[in-house]
Amino acid sequence: MSLGSPILISRCNGLNPHHYDVVLDWIEQQHPDLLRHVAGRALPYSLPNDSKCRLHIPWLQDPVEDLHASAYHWSTELSRQCDERGIRTINRVDKHANVSRLEASRRLASAGIRTPKVMAVASEEELRDCLCGMEPPVILRDNRSHQSPFVRIDSMSEAKTVSLKGFRGPVLAEFIDVASPDGSYRKFRCILLGDTVYSHHLQVTESWISRGKGRIKNASTREEEIEYLLAPEPHEELMRAARVALDLEFLGIDYALDKQGRVVVWEANLYPHIHFSKYDLVYRNFATERTIAGMVRYYLEQAGIPAPARLIQQASYVNGE
Fold this sequence. Notes:
By secondary structure, the chain is of the alpha/beta class. It has 10 helices and 12 strands. It has 3 domains: 7-98, Rossmann fold (3-Layer(aba) Sandwich), CATH 3.40.50; 117-174, 2-Layer Sandwich (Dna Ligase, domain 1), CATH 3.30.1490; 185-314, ATP-grasp fold, B domain (D-amino Acid Aminotransferase, Chain A, domain 1), CATH 3.30.470.20.
């Protein structure tokens, strides 16, 4: 990766710096000539006077401000230097708070997008006495952490026994039942790169907590996921509106459909997990490659570099959309 490259990727030890090595590996395998356009730098880093940078992309695990205060400061300063030279930053860290549960709920609801109502928990006493003014069932989570536990509270009596131990910024989120007619739960994820929206995965689980480890794997769920992935995201206009409301460029958005078929947006991820499967989910690797190709194409376009025809094809659906 060249010192004079127009695309600058900043990373930081301690913030999952190799999370998107899969993207760089793919470029090396599929389009090695494009690597000359990309430079990776570890924070702290300052732009040299003769920098050829046209685009800055922080690859930093969120919430940066909570996980690594110094990295937050370093990245903010680097983005400021970019601003002074008219260089765009993708997902600048001072906007990461936009996807916190409280702020995202406010922004999405203001845009007319259905999402769970979220309230801050000021104290354990308030939680136990009145559920912060909310009606059960509700879910107790951290406002910003992706790894915080889910605590479902189905009644006021259950609330009397709940502890806030282990929560840094506790919030209560409305529980919306999105169980399908067969009793299972479906979580859709799409990836947004500017106005481009990619269907990325569909997880079917028995639990309302949709985690990869709980994914139901059989012929039926496989065919259902393939059907979702083969077609353009069916709710792309709504997802674009969500991205605009969150004021970010690159996002993974998780959503479900309620019993009436209406979209419920759960959350947005700034650093979504993107990887190729090696075992029983290899059937969906074509969608992973499409997403990665889309990332590379978007980066090139934002840096003013023409994308090769083959890359454009790889970043498209089979029907060319």
